[in-house]
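User: I'm putting together a small comparison set for a docking exercise, and I want a reference complex before I start. The sequence is below, and the ligand is flavin mononucleotide. Could you produce the 3D structure with the ligand included, as structure tokens?
Assistant: Of course. I'll restate your input first, then give the structure tokens for the complex.
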Amino acid sequence: MKIQHTSQGFELAARFFLVAFAFFTGLFPCLVPISQAQAAETDHKILIVCFSRSGNTRALAEQIQTATGGKLVELEPVEPYPADYRLTVSRARRELASDVHPPLKTKIDDIDAYNLILLGSPNWGGSIAPPVKTFLSEHDLSGKTIAPFMTHGGSGLGRAASDIRRFAPRANLAEGLAVRGSAVSEAHRNVTTWLGRLGLRHN
Ligand SMILES: Cc1cc2nc3c(=O)[nH]c(=O)nc-3n(C[C@H](O)[C@H](O)[C@H](O)COP(=O)(O)O)c2cc1C
């Protein structure tokens, strides 16, 4: 019994000593900053920009908007893409082949107010769709962070990262999210995991 008491007493004293040591040497503050850093990263003002022809990327953007509370802007080309899939494919082929940036109806006047842009596009021909290229080339995104999200039919993010770098060379590119167009309605966990990896607080 006596031995047990002594060892318990020793254990308590050791714990007390460790806690006091950690507290006074500043070890605690070293452990805490993970949450402090996350708090700092949540100070982002978030703009969600997307283009969507058939609704998949818009639906994903709306999930992201609900989760982050960011402002959502959908890019609308002056000349809308045809509802007919084959006509859209042939216009997209022409635009992608000659790097056409179709003019947009959408104007974003307060872009300077945002430091993080979550940028959504369908995968067209292995990369971002032409209206998204127009958005990138119409704005100075220097110093802002761009995190791409993309819906696709099997090609994932494709060359999205290198094309975004090409059109916004002075922006910081963050990790992207790719979701199959047919799986957008079940993407909630992918979305929250991605937002978590970006260090963003989310619902
Ligand atoms: C013109 C065009 C080109 C496409 N090219 C690809 C492609 O190269 N790779 C791929 O995985 N999906 C491709 N898709 C499929 C779309 O990326 C997919 O259906 C996407 O979810 C559509 O998004 P939206 O509904 O927001 O327009 C293409 C679709 C279109 C209309």
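Residues 8 and 14 are 10 Å apart (CA to CA). Residues 2-24 form the longest helix (23 residues).
User: Thanks, that's exactly what I needed.
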